[in-house]
Design goal:
heterodimer, A: 5-stranded antiparallel beta sheet, B: alpha+beta, Ubiquitin-like (UB roll), 5-stranded mixed beta sheet, globular
Chain lengths: 267, 153
Amino acid sequence: MDFLAAGDLSTALDARAEHPEAELLAGGTDLMVEVNLSYHRPAGVIAVRSCEELLEWEGRRIGAAVTWARLEDGPHRALAQLARTIGSPQIRAAGTLGGNVATASPAGDGLPWIAAIDAEIEVASQRRGTRIIAWDEFFVGVKETTLAPDEIITAILLPEHMPVSQEFAKVGVRNVMVIAMVNCVVARGEDGFRVALGSVAPVPIRAYRAEEMINAETSISDAALTEFARIVSDEVRPISDHRSTEAYRRHASGVLARRLVERCLAA
Amino acid sequence: MIVTFTINGEERSATVAGWESLLTVLRDNLGLAGSKNACEQGECGSCSVIVDGANLCSCLVMVGDCEGTTITTVEGIAHGSVLHPIQQAILDEGGVQCGFCTPGFVITAAHLFAANPNPDEEAMREAFSGNICRCTGYGALLRAFDRLAGDGT
């Protein structure tokens, strides 16, 4: 098989079952970079961006092929904020949330949002039908997920109770076309704050110890926020690489998480 | 595989490998070398083309996914030998230095002004945030687009 542009999910799933060696193509903003720069020739391609089922966005179900351009104008504040920081207008017109999840880069800007709200990943295969996977069982390593070779990500499923306020921020070298040194989402629900960070571990992580600490405070003082930021910095597991250092990422994690808690409080 | 699409109002076909970039096919198979190949990773915007109404980096579009699409490249912007107002404004303001980024800026401007004939500076800066001018000639380009916005062209 050279190339199949699937117009609907069942066509895509049939092709995926028959050609597990083929690459899935959504917006192409990751795959094509690899093709262009490494002269990597895919053994076959199944394009899914025109599958109607993946383009639907209704209520708690965001189709996997919904683009950043659409998410940028959507109702979920932190998701819209993060979508706007991705790539450039040209990239956002092509790139998709499902593609971000499938690529599973530690720096994927959509991933801390999924972790902060406890979203689930809906996947499908021709043989086993639909399967729903918790986010922390989906991302298992750098660009590694538990998606089976015959499966396609179909949607991101949002929880029944969405946070009352949610905020995103990231640190990078400029405002456009930047891959995060650290990205962070803080969501505030009825059960308290949830804090998720990316680019500071092989997979998106929650700062559970910091959450527990801040959620035990009856009124949040400046000292409590300082202690909260310290725990976040301690809890992340960053590395030093070409983009940043471990020390800076730890520092920035605490600063961002604290800032976003303050923004949620002010919201 | 053979891909057929409408480019600048004309139906064109090309025999391609499906995984090739639209940019490669435009330049190497179809003789449309206006779209420039600079970074090949979507960073610079010099290969911008409009596909079914979306402004995309053609280096990141797999050509196999373009069957039946309608594409506008920089070659389709002028009306014959008469420059499009966007091109004329860039010329008048001295918005071309080395010229390598110019086709991408022309396409992004065409896309922006089609949706919003009177963008403010913020909308312009946002729209052009995916186009890099290595000569850093942004001032002249912004003056050109500002003049157009003022004209309501």
